[in-house]
Amino acid sequence: MFREIQKLSILFLLALSTGTAFAGTILVQGTGTANYQIAAHAPIGQSFTTIDTTVSVGLEFAAINTSASNDDDIRYDLYDGYGTGGSLLGSSTFSLATGFTGFHMVNFSSISLILGNEYTLVSSIVGNSSHWGLLASGADIYSGGSSVGDWSFFTPSEINIQVVGIPFVSSVPEPASIILLGLGLLGIRSRQLLKKS
Q: How far apart are the C-alpha atoms of 100 and 108, rounded to whole Å?
């Protein structure tokens, strides 16, 4: 019985020694939204303040000119800071199926972000199709960022964006857990020695 308790204690302490990060989500999606044609306002997007170091990010799309061709790809660019003046951290090119409406998410977990810093995700059309637009809010509903785009007459407060933190499990043990494990083993050994004497 004592050996069983020892084994369970060791397994429990080893389980504690693996660090886990928990992910959060930012969703900026206003009601009474408007559509902004990507080709007319590119690069168009939204800045955000990150709450995780690795994220998947997406903007909300809708077809706003269905008579235009849907042959051109869409490109996401992720920048450090507000707007497109900071360092380009990553890009992704994709296409959307005709009739698609919603958030298109891209995994940028290969880029390590700094918690609490501002980043900007913008989209542009690889070509000149006027098929796609982004949904935006007329109200200022998110204090962690604002819209980015080539605005000629009306600037929306927010472009609808979703930022999802990607959890990770670290295989490197935490020092406190190692100390706990050592103290537990030391206690077990000292108890064994006391029983023998």
A: 22
28, 72, 14: which is closest to 164 by C-alpha?
28
- Residue tagged 């600037």 (tokens): 155
Looking up tokens 């999606």 gives 29
Spatial separation of the C-alpha atoms in residues 13 and 173, rounded to whole Å: 11
Average pLDDT of the chain is: 80
DSSP class of 11 = H
The CA radius of gyration of the chain, in Å to the nearest whole number, is 25
pTM: 0.73
- d(C-alpha 6, C-alpha 2), whole Å: 6
Burial class (CB within 10 angstroms; exposed 0-12, middle 13-18, buried 19+) of 99: exposed
Q: What backbone phi and psi angles, to 5 degrees, belong to 111? A: -105, 125
Query: What is the rounded distance in angstroms from the CA atom of residue 182 to the CA atom of residue 34?
Result: 60
For 28, the 3-state DSSP assignment is strand
pLDDT tier, 36 (very low <50, low <70, confident <90, very high otherwise): confident
